[in-house]
Write a structure and sequence with these properties.
Elements (H helix, E strand, L loop, with lengths): L22 H13 L4 E6 L4 H13 L3 E5 L9 H9 L2 E4 L5 H17 L4 E3 L7 H19 L2
Length: about 150
């Protein structure tokens, strides 16, 4: 009964922080940031955002400063992704419980501020689900096909 090969997604082997599917688009987005000589990456999300934690870890690994913008109040305790963020030394800004559009406005204003300071910001938009970031998922399919062909 040919069930074919079984492929397992091993987030623990991705080499960056807590893992997760956001590593794939970040590979391309951070590559673009580095290619464009960006001085600071800005990512945003809730305080326990996987995207934010993985972006912080990836930026730390490649040596690009990162600012995380959270639409929450500062946490009372460090745990989970919040603790991981602190361990990377990333700068975090808590702007209170605002809507995503309000958070996005803050991020754009921050990017303009950094640009005025000469820090060349790179904003990771829309949870890294941009066209450029999607290339990481396309590459996943190519990797799976290479694995299938090698068997």
């Amino acid at each position: 009964m040919g069930c074919g090969p079984v492929y397992l997604k091993r987030d623990d082997l991705n080499g960056v922080g807590p893992g997760g599917n956001k590593v794939r688009p970040l590979e391309y987005l951070l590559g673009e940031a580095m290619e464009n000589h960006c001085g600071t990456v800005i990512a945003s999300g809730q305080e326990n955002s996987n995207l934010c934690s993985i972006a912080a870890a990836a930026c730390c690994r490649v040596g690009i400063p990162c600012i995380l913008v959270h639409n929450n109040h500062p946490p009372e305790q460090l745990a989970g992704n919040i603790l991981l963020n602190k361990l990377t030394g990333v700068e975090e800004r808590y702007i209170g419980p605002v809507t995503e559009p309000e958070r996005d406005q803050y991020v754009q204003a921050l990017a303009r501020e950094l640009e005025a300071e000469g820090r060349a910001p790179y904003v990771i938009e829309n949870g890294a689900t941009t066209v450029h970031g999607a290339v990481g998922y396309v590459n996943l399919l190519l990797e799976l096909e290479r694995c299938r062909e090698s068997q």
